[in-house]
Design a protein that fits this description.
The complex is a heterodimer of chains A (113) and B (110).
Chain A (H helix, E strand, L loop, with lengths): L3 E4 L2 E4 L5 E7 L5 E7 L6 E8 L2 E4 L6 E3 L9 E3 L8 E8 L8 E2 L3 E5 L1
Parallel strand pairs in A: 2-11
Antiparallel strand pairs in A: 1-3, 3-8, 4-5, 4-9, 5-6, 7-8, 9-10, 9-11
Chain B lengths: L3 E4 L2 E5 L4 E7 L3 E9 L5 E7 L2 E5 L2 E6 L4 E6 L8 E9 L7 E2 L3 E6 L1
Parallel strand pairs in B: 2-11
Antiparallel strand pairs in B: 1-3, 3-8, 4-5, 4-9, 6-7, 7-8, 9-10, 9-11
């Protein structure tokens, strides 16, 4: 079955370390997205990519970086510059950028040790 | 003020009851999405609307573009419907991706 795979499900990071969250999709979707979810808040857009080798900042991109070298993959790096990285991170994809239904992964919960 | 507001924030009901969750937004949109998030965190897309009404099984979603309001209804509610229901919009002219409400936490008791 087609879908989005995020790994790992739980991730722990020491302060000062960078960490990379994986997102892979086999839906042949062009657009991919990273969202952050904090308790009591709605999801917020970190980065998005409409096509391979291109990506754009979302509403809360500071302290994060992404790459889109392959259509299937959109990894998110949480850098040491991100002041409050503890959160639930969701990856999503859609056929194109113009509001089509988005498919979501199961998320990665990142905690700081 | 958030661009997408949902009500109620929390809702507990008995099995079989008719459920309504409301979503109001304050920006121009090209589409509105209703999503379901289960306790493990995964999110499933239920509906995408740009006008009118859609129905899937016991779920019905409506949107009134003029009033900038959408509702999600669940008929004959069941404990397996317990989840967080999230309204999200795609803003016209905004960054790509969706703008989300904070969600409605629904509990259906047997």
């Amino acid at each position: 079955d087609g879908g989005i795979t995020q790994s790992p499900k739980y991730l722990f990071r020491k302060e000062g370390q960078n960490v990379t969250l994986s997102c892979e999709q086999n839906l042949n979707h062009d657009a991919m997205y990273w969202y952050r979810q904090d308790p009591g808040q709605g999801l917020r857009l970190i980065y998005y990519s409409q096509i391979v080798n291109d990506f754009q900042k979302g509403d809360i991109a500071e302290g994060y970086s992404v790459s889109r070298e392959k259509k299937e993959s959109f990894p998110l790096t949480v850098t040491s510059a991100q002041k409050n990285p503890t959160a639930f991170y969701l990856c999503a994809s859609s056929i194109g950028p113009t509001g089509q239904p988005q498919h979501f992964g199961d998320g990665t919960r990142l905690s700081i040790l | 003020k958030n661009e997408v507001e949902q009500s109620p924030q929390n809702l507990t009901a008995q099995e079989g009851e008719f459920i309504t969750i409301n979503c109001s937004y304050s920006v121009g949109i090209s589409a509105l999405h209703w999503l379901q998030q289960h306790p493990g965190g995964g999110i499933v897309s239920l509906f995408m609307l740009s006008s009118g009404k859609k129905k899937h099984g016991r779920l019905i979603a409506t949107i009134n573009i003029q009033e900038k309001h959408s509702s999600l209804h669940i008929t004959a509610s069941h404990p397996r419907d317990s989840a967080v229901y999230i309204c999200a919009v795609r803003r016209v002219g905004g960054a790509d991706g969706l703008t989300f409400g904070k969600g409605t936490h629904l509990i259906i008791q047997p």
